[in-house]
């Protein structure tokens, strides 16, 4: 079996672009990824296209890859359309890697893209409303907030977790301050203005205890990744090969008390990659809300239960810290165009491992982790993926 190597990455700026469509976003991300990899469209053997909400927001169903990529020089290639909630593009990465490792293909492309901005915000929020089991009875507090149903879900989880977590509301604000600082250093980020603990706490309440600044925003964007075999990477002259050492996916069982999907996915990824949480230098975590980042510290073994608050206060997860978390700005600041989020995490981590992250760089980064999840079922994410990259 061959190892899978990331040969090139590209992404658009994330933000709200009423004047751009999926085609425009995809064309930019794909072009940049191919140039970065020094690959021609003719050398791409297969495309894995991830999108979660085009059907709801734009009405485009079934052939999203074929329609979105028709002007990229990739027309006629095998294309697979992948939808897996907020974990769509990390799921595409999982499948793309498998085809390279197995020897089926030598060079493939992953594209994650989303167009969530709509003149009617109810349409945008409606894209999230169906990312739950519609026949499952939700907590009575779900749907009582002023944002999307998922912020109510995150708020409900947060209230329960806080009881024994050793955190204070200011710790959530610290996550936001850290993320906004990182976003201010990222030219592709949706939010580039720094903030303060006081401003975060005084922003509008969305769903108690989540204030506006503690919630990720809707947005648009695309990101793309060229994945190839180690031998093909050598032929391309890739200077700093980034190896996909693990990419584990776990879906929720719906059984009360079952191990959280992120915990399971992390355990499998660590085992496959032959590393542990103590080996991680830089991580991109699915911080759809500020408390989610702290919860993931525990889920991924970055700290012991009850120590997440102490970890954020210590500065160890800040840019340049022992384990830099969300140096891209994360979902809170880089943005969360759902189908592009997982692949955007990989773009950031690839740049970190190459030493190309500029003022966001974690010095000496050699091992990186991405955690991406999506949907909601029985009190847990419906799916989670953990990917580990090394040089």
TrEMBL record:
Question: Cross-referenced PROSITE patterns, in alphabetical order?
Answer: THIOLASE_2
GO BP term, pick one:
lipid transport
Per UniProt, residues of the Thiolase C-terminal domain are 262-383
* Coiled-coil ranges from the UniProt annotation: none
Residue spans crossing the bilayer: none
Pfam short name (any one): Thiolase_N
SUPFAM superfamilies the record matches? Thiolase-like (SSF53901)
Instruction: Report what the protein is called.
Output: propanoyl-CoA C-acyltransferase
Q: Native species of this protein?
A: Cupriavidus oxalaticus
């Amino acid at each position: 079996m061959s190892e899978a190597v990331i040969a090139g990455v590209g992404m658009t700026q994330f933000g709200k672009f009423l004047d751009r469509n999926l085609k425009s976003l995809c064309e930019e991300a794909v072009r940049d990824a191919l140039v970065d990899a020094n690959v021609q469209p003719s050398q791409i053997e297969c495309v894995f296209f991830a999108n979660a909400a085009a059907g709801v927001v734009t009405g485009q169903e079934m052939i999203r890859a074929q329609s979105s990529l028709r002007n990229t020089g990739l027309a006629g290639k095998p294309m697979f359309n992948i939808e897996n909630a907020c974990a769509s593009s990390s799921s595409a990465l999982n499948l793309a890697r498998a085809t390279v490792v197995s020897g089926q293909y030598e060079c493939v492309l992953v594209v994650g893209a989303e167009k969530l901005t709509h003149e009617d915000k109810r349409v945008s929020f409606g894209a999230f409303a169906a990312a739950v089991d519609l026949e499952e009875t939700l907590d009575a507090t779900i749907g009582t907030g002023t944002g999307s149903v998922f912020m109510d879900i995150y708020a409900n989880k947060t209230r329960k977790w806080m009881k024994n977590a050793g955190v204070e509301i200011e710790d959530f604000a610290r996550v936001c301050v850290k993320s906004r600082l990182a976003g201010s250093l990222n030219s592709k980020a949706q939010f580039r203005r720094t903030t303060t603990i006081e401003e975060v706490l005084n922003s509008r309440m969305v769903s108690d205890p989540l204030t506006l600044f503690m919630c990720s925003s809707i947005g648009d964007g695309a990101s793309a990744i060229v994945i190839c075999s180690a031998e093909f990477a050598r032929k391309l002259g890739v200077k700093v090969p980034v190896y996909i050492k693990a990419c584990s996916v776990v879906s929720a069982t719906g059984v009360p008390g079952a191990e959280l999907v992120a915990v399971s996915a992390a355990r499998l990824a660590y085992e496959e990659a032959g590393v542990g949480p103590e080996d991680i230098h830089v991580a991109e975590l699915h911080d759809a809300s500020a408390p989610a980042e702290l919860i993931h510290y525990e889920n991924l073994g970055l700290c012991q239960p009850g120590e997440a608050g102490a970890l954020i206060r210590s500065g160890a997860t800040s840019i340049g810290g022992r384990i830099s978390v969300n140096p891209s700005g994360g979902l809170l600041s880089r943005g969360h165009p759902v189908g592009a989020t997982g692949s955007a995490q990989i773009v950031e981590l690839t740049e970190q491992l190459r030493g190309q992250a500029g003022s966001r760089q974690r010095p000496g980064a050699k091992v990186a982790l991405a955690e991406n999840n999506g949907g909601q079922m029985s009190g847990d994410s419906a799916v989670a993926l953990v990917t580990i990259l090394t040089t």
